[in-house]
Write a structure and sequence with these properties.
Radius of gyration: 17 Å
Distance between the termini: 22 Å
Structural class: mainly alpha
Number of strands: 0
Order of helices and strands: HHHHHH
Helix content: over 70%
Strand content: under 5%
Low-confidence stretches: none
Length: 147
């Protein structure tokens, strides 16, 4: 279920206190997102040169692609936690988490890109995405939003 559809449904179930249905939707969405993104993740992981050649890039960028791939995969399978915060009256918390993550991203950009170039940029984006969603997951579980 795409986020455009699942967000309003999460909000509806949350505010109507339908905990069982909310848990069921949450778990099914996590599974669906994981299994929908896993084949792409595996394909790019095992055939990075092919995917780089589609964009006319050399195989020299394989490490950068893999780092970005891992970051995007982790972001994709955990983004539902941020969505959950946004639609359950925790949007200010999500905003603050996003601001902290953006600041981390800027700091890492200034530190890593001049020294490592494209590799530094890929590390920066992957770390920022993971940091953002780890904080969202922590906030989600800390506040017991499924109870």
């Amino acid at each position: 279920m795409p986020f455009a559809i699942i967000g309003p449904k999460i909000a509806e179930l949350f505010w109507s206190k339908k905990t069982y249905e909310l848990r069921k939707l949450f778990m099914s969405s996590l599974k669906m997102i994981f299994f929908a993104t896993l084949p792409v993740f595996i394909a790019v992981l095992f055939f990075p040169s092919f995917f780089l050649s589609i964009f006319n890039l050399s195989a020299n960028f394989t490490l950068e692609l893999i780092i970005m791939l891992v970051g995007q995969f982790l972001y994709g399978i955990t983004a539902i936690f941020g969505l959950f915060l946004m639609v359950t009256d925790k949007q200010k918390m999500f905003r603050n988490i996003y601001i902290v993550s953006a600041i981390l991203n800027l700091i890492l950009c200034f530190v890593l890109i001049p020294k490592y170039g494209v590799l530094g940029a890929s590390i920066t984006v992957a770390v920022s995405y993971v940091f953002l969603n780890v904080l969202c997951m922590y906030s989600f579980y800390k506040r017991n939003l499924l109870i």
